[in-house]
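seq/struct pair 1
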Amino acid sequence: MYSKYINQFLIILLFFLCISGCKKFIEVEAPPTSVNSENVYSGDNTAIGVLTAIIAKMNPGLTGEGSISSLTLFSELSADHLEYFTKENMTYMAYYQNDLKATFTDRNPALFWRHSYTQIYIANAAIEGISNSTSLTPLVKERLLAEAKFMRAFYFFYLVNLYGDVPLTLTTNYKANATLGRTPVAEVYQQIIKDLKEAQTLLSDDYLNNTLLTSTDERIRPNKGAATALLARVYLYSGTENYANAEIEATKVIDDPKYSLTAPSEAFLKNGTETIWSLQPTQNTVNTWAGFRFLLPETGPNGWTPFYLSDRLLNLFNDTDLRLQQWTNKVTVDNTTFYYPYKYKVAPGSSTVTEYEIVFRLAEQYLIRAEARAHLGKLTGTNSAASDLNAILNRAGLGLTTATTKQALLDAIILERQRELFIEWGHRWLDLKRTGTIDAVMSVVAPLKGGSWEPYKALYPILQEEIAKNPGMTGQQNPGYTD
C-alpha cells in the first residue's frame, strides 16, 4: 500500500528494534546485523522474530494510541458507551463528536489505516520470505505462514469495518500496490476467509512458545482456536449465506475443552480458560493498555484519564448483574459519581503481571452462535439461540431469557453484546453498523455529545494525503468527506 516502504527489510529491522526494549516479556532472538531476505528467513529464530514483532506491535504499552489496540478507545468514543470529560484533545474530540476530517493532521484518523497497512506489509513480506525459504524447520515454516496469514486477515477485518472498501494488498510490490483502487468489501472478506482457513489448517491446536515447537500455558501466540474464533466472527458479519458457517466455527471453539466460561471476576486474568488469544505486556510496569487508559484515580477524570462510562450503557444493567458489579467501578467527586471500565484492574506502576489484553474470548463465541442460530430459525430448546444466550446470562447471575421469537432473540442478543463486550475492540461501533441501527442510535447520541450525525459518518475518512500517495485511489474518498 505505502510507496514509502520501499525496502521491506528495513521495516523488518525496525520491528526487531521495536521489541528489543520489551525482551523481559517477549523473548526474541537478536536480529542479524545485516537484514535481508536470505538471512532473516534462513533460520527459525529470526523468522519467528518477524511474527513475534508483528504481535508485539499490537500492544505497545504507553504508545498504544498508535496501534490497533487503541481501537477500543476511539471506536467507543465514536459510539455511545463513553463520555469525554476534559474535551481538550483534538483527536479525542473528533472521534467523540463524530467530526473526523479527511485533512485532519493532529493525531489523525489515519491511525488505523497506516498502522494496519504497515502490519499487512510486514505480513506480506513474511509470507513471501518464509515461502521462499528452504532452510526453515518444516513445521516452523508452516506455523509461521499460518501466523502471517492470520495477522493479515485480522487487520483486513478491521480495515473493511472501519473504512468500507479498501485496497487488497497481498504482495510487497509497492509500485503495484500504489496503483490499486479500493476492493469491494465482499471480495476482501473472501480473502480474509481464505487466509483464515489456511491458517486453521496449519496452526497448532495448542498454544506454543517462541520456538513454535513446544506447548505453553501462555495464550499469546495465535493458535487454531484464534483463527477459528475470527473466522466465526467474519462469517457472522458477512451475512445471510454464512450464518450456518458461523454456527459451525463458533461451535468448534465452544466445544474445545481448552475453553470454558469463567466467573466474571476471572474473565480478564492472564491465560484464563475463557481466553482464546491475548496480548502479553510489552512494558514492565503496564499490564494492559486498557488498565492504563481507563482506570480513574480517586480524584476523578483528568487530562490523562478523561474517560468514563455513559449512563446510556450503565442503564442497560440490572443491579444484580455481576458484570456491573465486577466490570465497572466508580469514584465520587464533589457529589458527582463517575463510573469507569474495570474489566482490567491493574493500574500502571505494577511490576507484577496478572492481566493480559484479551483479543478474543469465549463469551463472544456464544453470542456469535446465538445470533447465527436465531437467523437460522433455531430459536429455543436445546442447541438454540436461547440456550447460548442463557449461558451468558447465567454467568452474569441473571435469569433465563424470556425471548422466544426471532426478532426478540436478536434484540436480546445485541443487548447482551453491549453488556458483555463493552469497551472491547470496537464491538459496539461495528455492531451498530452491521445491524443497520447506527443512524437511529447516533442521531440521538451525537447531539448529546455536542456533535451532529449524518449517515456517511458510519465510515471513517481516509486521510487525503494517503489517497494522494496512491494514484489508484484517486477520487475514491469515502462519501461525505471533503476536507
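seq/struct pair 2
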Amino acid sequence: AQGVTATFTLQRFTLSVSNVGTGVGTVASAPAGISCGATCAATFASGTAVILTATPATGSTFTGWSGGGCTGTGPCTVTMSAAQSVTATFALQSFTLTLTKAGTGGGTVTSAPAGISCGTTCAASFTSGATVNLTAALAAGSTFTGWSGSCTGTGTCSVTMSAARAVTATFTSTTGFSDNPLVPGTTVMKAAHITELRTAVNAARTRNRLMPVVFTDPTLMAGSTTIKRIHILELRVTLNAIFTALGRTPPTYTDPTLAAGTTAKAAHIQELRNAVSSLP
C-alpha cells in the first residue's frame, strides 16, 4: 500500500518600484516588502493586491504614478497576476517670492536666478532650497534706503526659498518728487505730483529772483481734484520764464500746445520734473 501527496504553491511575481524626478521621497507597500528608499523590489503571491503609498520628503511634492495600471497621486493598487513595474515621480516644491517697491523714489529690482524684474514682474516661483539674490538698481534722482521683510540692509538681498517669501525694497526720492520717475502707462497720476512741481518751480523762481506765482486751484485735494490741462500749462509757462531769465533755451515738451481735451500724461509731469531739477 502506498500514499502520495501532491503539493501546490501560489506562483510569486516581482513588483519593482522606481523613484524618479527632481524631488525626493519614499514608497512603501502593504503587505510589507517594499520600502523604496532602500528596498525597491519584492515578490508577492499571485492575486495579491499590493497597495503602494508615496511620501514626499520635506521640500518635495509627489506628482504621480505611472506603470502597473496606476495614475494620479493617491495610493496605487497593483494586483499581482504577473511581474509589474511602477514609477513614482517626485518634484522639488516651488515657493513664490514676492517683491514690493515702496517709498517716494524709483528703481528696479532683479533676481538671480532670473524670474523677477520689478519694474514689470514682481513675483516669481523658485524651487525649494534655491538661494535667490535680489539686486536693486536706482532710477535717476533716487536713493535705495533698504530691504525689509525677508532681508535687511542695503546690499544684495539673499533669500533661501524654504517657504513663500516677501521682500520690500524702499527707494527715496532725492528730488522731493514722489513716484520718481513716473512710468508711462503704469504710474497713476496724482494731485501730489502737481503740488510737488508747484513747490519746486516757485522755489526755483525765488532762487533766481523771480516772484512766486499763484496757481489755478491752489489747493489740490488728493482723490478729489481732477488734474487739468491748465495745471500743466501754468507750470510750463512759469518754468519757461526761469529759463528765459537765465538766458537758457526753454525745454521742449510733449504735446506742446496741450489742446483742449488732452489728457495729462506721465510724460508731461516727468518733463517738468527733469527741467526744474536742471535749474540752479
